[in-house]
Design goal:
By secondary structure, the protein is mostly helical. Among the domains are: about 45 residues, no CATH class; about 70 residues, no CATH class. The protein contains 15 helices and no strands. The longest helix has 13 residues. The N and C termini lie far apart (about 60 Å). InterPro entries: Ankyrin_rpt (IPR002110), Ankyrin_rpt-contain_sf (IPR036770), SecEffector_AnkRepeat (IPR052050). Pfam families: Ank_2.
């Protein structure tokens, strides 16, 4: 795939094919000529190759190669892809690269790992990177039906009560009955607007099990429940 470069460490490594062309056909070629040839021959590192490699959890060698050919590999889309891969080694690689390059952006990668239910990656971030998460971690986990993640967040991460109350709407909207049942006791106001919205959106999307269960709790007024089916 790639090869060691004879160029300075601040430049990306040249492809093996580029070095062969320069050695066999253009001996003594100037560096900028070699780089032009390299850019023409390179079909591997174009476009969003680094993002795609992070997302699929490619080898660290491949990630290093692609990052070396990027002018700015420490970007939000790369951070998001590394987090959503759920691979601890990919996350570690990206965050250490960001540290080495002095990147100061805060991407809240823990929000993304939690939203996708990547428990091991979230636990690693919490233990090793002093990461913080926002309400998006809880909301995302509820929306995606990640009950185990929600339970871990409750036990380990400070979360405002109002966030738990909002989360039930997202769980109901996407039909995650077990998550709705787990979140229900956290509702301080059993006649709240969030619960009415949860019931309404569950009905609109055809999540009958969620609708029937919420209705069975007898916490919403009868006219609200009956109005949903009109």
């Amino acid at each position: 795939m790639a090869t060691n470069s004879t160029s300075s460490s601040s430049e990306w490594p040249l492809l093996t094919s580029t070095l062969v062309v320069c050695r066999e056909c253009l001996p003594g070629a100037l560096p900028h000529v070699a780089r032009s040839i390299d850019g023409y021959l390179d079909s591997f590192a174009r476009g969003d190759a680094l993002v795609r490699a992070c997302r699929r959890g490619s080898s660290l060698r491949a990630l290093e190669y692609l990052a070396a050919r990027e002018s700015d590999p420490c970007r939000e889309d790369v951070a998001r892809a590394a987090a959503r891969s759920g691979r601890v080694e990919v996350l570690r690689w990206f965050l250490e690269l960001s540290d080495r390059r002095g990147a100061t952006d805060k991407w809240h990668v823990m929000d993304w790992t939690a939203s996708r239910g990547h428990l091991e990656a979230t636990q690693w971030l919490w233990a090793n990177r002093a990461e913080v998460c926002t309400s998006l971690a809880v909301i995302g986990a509820a929306r995606n039906g990640r009950l185990e993640m929600l339970q871990w967040l409750e036990q380990n991460v400070p979360v405002d009560d109002c966030v738990w109350e909002r989360a039930i709407f997202h769980a109901a909207r996407y039909g995650h009955l077990q998550v709705v049942q787990w979140l229900y006791p956290k509702q301080s106001d059993r006649r709240s607007g969030e619960l009415r919205l949860a019931l309404s959106f569950a009905a609109r999307r055809g999540h009958d099990d969620v609708v029937h269960w919420l209705h069975s709790q007898r916490t919403l007024s009868s006219h609200v429940c009956s109005g949903i089916y009109r």
